[in-house]
Structures are given as C-alpha cells and as structure tokens.
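4-hydroxythreonine-4-phosphate dehydrogenase structure dump, as promised
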Amino acid sequence: MAEMRPVALTCGEPAGVGPEIAVKARAILGDSVPLFWLGDPRHLPDGTRYQVIASPAEATAVLPAALPVLPHPFAAPATPGKVTYANARGVVEVIARAVDYVMKGQASAICTAPIAKKVLKDGAGFSHPGHTEFLAYLARVETVVMMLASPLLRVVPATIHIPLAEVPRALTAAGLEEIIRITAAGLTRDFGIAHPRIAVAGLNPHAGEGGAMGQEDARIIAPVIEKLAAEGMAIRGPLPADTMFHPRARAAYDVAVCMYHDQALIPIKTIDFDGGVNVTLGLPFVRTSPDHGTAFDIAGKGIAEPGSLVAALRLAHEMAAARGM
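structure tokens r here:
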C-alpha cells in the first residue's frame, strides 16, 4: 500500500496560539499523522525542534523527531498576543498555498489553524467572511457546509454567521435541501457511513408547535424532510431542539442539522469542547480546523490546549484515507 501523503497544517494568525499548539500537537501525534507545518519558522516558539523541508514529500521522513516546516516568509516577526498587520498578507498566502498543494495531490488534506478575520481585512484587504468562504472561492465551489464533529456529536448549522433576526429570511427550502444533501454525501464519502441518519431541528421552540410558535417549521423545513424521506433518506424532523442532544437522543442519529449557529454550536461545545473539529463538506479536498479561535489573551504563555488541533489533524488524516488520498 502506498504511503499516505501528509496533511498540510497552515500557520494561521502568527500572533495567536496556532504556532504553539502546532508544536504541542506534533509532540502528541508523533508520526501517527503525517503532516507538515506551512509558515514562517521565526513564528514558532523558542526551542521548537523543527526541520525545514523543500517539498511535502519530505515530511514523513522528518517525523516524529521534529516538526517538518515548509517555510513561507512573512513580512515581520510575530509577538504572541500582539497583532502585526504587515503579516496579514502572509496568512492569506499560506492558505492559498496549502490549497495548491492539496489540489495538486502533494498533500492529502488541509488542517487550518485559527485566523483573525478582522486582522486579515484591515491588513490585507481580505474580502471573504472567513476561512470557509475563502477555501470555497479558491476551490471554485459555490456551496459548502460547515460541520462540527466530535466522537460524541456531529452538527451542521444551516445558517452560520448572520444575526439571529435574519435567520428566518435566510432559511429557504432549496438552500436547506442542498445543505442536507451535501451533509449526507459527506458522511458517506468521508466518514464511511453508508446510510446516514439525519435529525433536523426546528427553527422555533417546540418546532413551531403546529404553527402556534411560528410558521417556518411547517412551511419551509417539513416539506424538505418529506421530499428527502420519500427518496429513501433516513431523515426525521423538524424536531424540538431542546430534546435533541441528550445521550439517548444522540444515539438515534449520525448528524443533527440545525437552523442557526448557536443552536448547533452550543450543544457540541458543551458536550465536547476540546474534541470538537470544524469540517468543511462539499470541497474537492478534505479540510478540518480546531474548533476555537486565535486566543490572543493566552498566546505565548504555554497554556494553550492542543486537544482540538490534535483531533482536527487525526480527523483530516482519517477522512483523507476514506477518500483514498
């Protein structure tokens, strides 16, 4: 069997916790996940054991003795916790470079360290809402789906970074159907679930309670579920969200499709804060990310927990293997 290509780990915001948790994750994973770090070696913590490589193909030979680093020069050094806007362009370039490697088959997947979107906007004119949208743009894909996954729960928000007041207007039958179809295909292709079981949350309390608490559940959500169920999909809903996430309920489905950001993210971050992984479904390559931000307040203090990054790297490796990468 051919040796798997390595996961490309992007540096993320160099003033955040990304560089230090990359080093910690490598120490925990050893050579169990082939990977290389893409960034400026000056931004790694002092004393980091790393080795510069010239191509992704050299990464496996370096592990587990050191962190393989494919260098990308940035404009300036980095001070943990203090933003340097001159480095914003480098962060964007690293993401694009990682996509190039995976699209050319030199990397098996991408795992992205956290970015600071406002820093990228102010320092590099970054016009995308976030990582996910930029990756979709680079891959020339119109619709992607954000999944948060852990061994205990998988959730997909149908709407993401918009005000709560805008959710009912943003929620459409066509959009919800596309999200559910992409989710089902991703569970089969990337997670090896031949017949995924999908639970769909209602938008309103008690899933609208027969129209007494809102019409969207019956008017928008229910017809989509009925259509997909008639096609043979194992799908239920709309379900009252307040009873979807206890252990017995979670055992009955493989993913919960929720109607807005917090309806999806509060349960998974409560149940498995350190084990949650951000997965982008619908891309032509595997992409995962730790489910936390840059944590400027603790950057450089040596206390950042690498658990979510470790989980993200492991999942990227497993998903790539499922795709035969």
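Residues 21 and 272 are 18 Å apart (CA to CA).
lmk if u need the other ones
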